[in-house]
Amino acid sequence: MSDSAVILTNLTKEFRELRAVDTLNLEIAEGEIFALVGPNGAGKTTTIKMILGIFAPTMGEIQVLGWSIPKERNKIKRDIGYLAQQRALYESLTTRENIEFFAGIKGMLKDDIKEKTDELIQVLDLVEYEKVRAVNLSGGTQQRCALACACVNNPRLLLLDEATVGLDPILRKEVWKYLRDFNKKVKGAIIITTHFLDEADYADRVGFMRGAKMIALDAPAVLKKQTSSITMEEVFLKLAAEET
C-alpha cells in the first residue's frame, strides 16, 4: 500500500502479565477511513495510544506519517487530531472558546480559527450551545464539541476513540456524514474505534479485534460476502465463534 499514513509491524503491548495487543500488523493509507471494531478490552484503545506515542510498544514498530513513533512523536503533533474516550474539554470555557483554544494550540492563524470554528459549529449542530460552558453541556453535546476540537486543524491523521458514544442514532449518522465529507476535503486518514458494529459499514475497511488480536480485516462488503452475512454484527458474531 503506497502513501501510508500508518504502518504497524508486529505491534505488541504487554502490561505485566497481560498482553493487550498481540502481534498486530496493519497498514492504513492516506485518505482511508478505517474502523477498529471489537468489544471492550479487545485492544482498540491501547492500539490508538501506541499510534499516538502515549504508550511505547513492548515489541514491534510504528510509523506515522513517515515518522517513527514514539521516538519522533513531536514531529507529528500538529498533523494529528485526537478524540479520547475521556473528553478533554475545559469546563469553564464555552463551546466556541474550547474549539478556538485547541485551534490556537495547533498553531492556526486567527482568521482561519474563526472560519473553521464557525464551520464546525454549524456542521456539528452546536449553534445553540456555542456560548454555553462545557460543564453545562449534556454528554452528547460535549462529545460533539470534543470532535470539533479534534478536527479543527484539518489533521492529516484523525484518531477517534469511541467518537459516537453518547449520541443518538440520528446524530451518529450525522457525525459519520461529517467524517466522510471531512475526509474528502482533507484527504487524510481517519482511524475510529467503536463497539457499535453497524457503524463499520461507513468505513472503507474494518479491522475486527478480539482478545488482543486482529481476527479479520477487509472492506465491509467483502467481510459480509466471506461470512455469508447481512449485517456487520452478524459478521462479528460468526468470526468470534470461529475463534472459540
Overall description:
It is a single chain. Helices cover 35% and strands 27% of the residues. Helix 2 (95-105) packs across helix 3 (110-123), helix 2 runs parallel beside helix 4 (139-151) and helix 6 crosses helix 7. The strands form two sheets. The protein has a six-stranded mixed beta sheet, with helices on both faces. Strands 2-1-4-5 form a four-stranded antiparallel beta sheet, covered by helices on one side. Strand 1 and strand 2 form a beta hairpin. The protein has seven helices and ten strands. The protein starts with a strand and ends with a helix. The protein has one domain (4-243): P-loop containing nucleotide triphosphate hydrolases (Rossmann fold).
CATH-level-4 superfamily name: P-loop containing nucleotide triphosphate hydrolases
CATH class reads Alpha Beta
Structural class: alpha/beta
The figure for the number of domains is: 1
Summarize the entry for a quick read.
The chain has 7 helices and 10 strands. The mean pLDDT is 93. The chain is 35% helix and 27% strand.
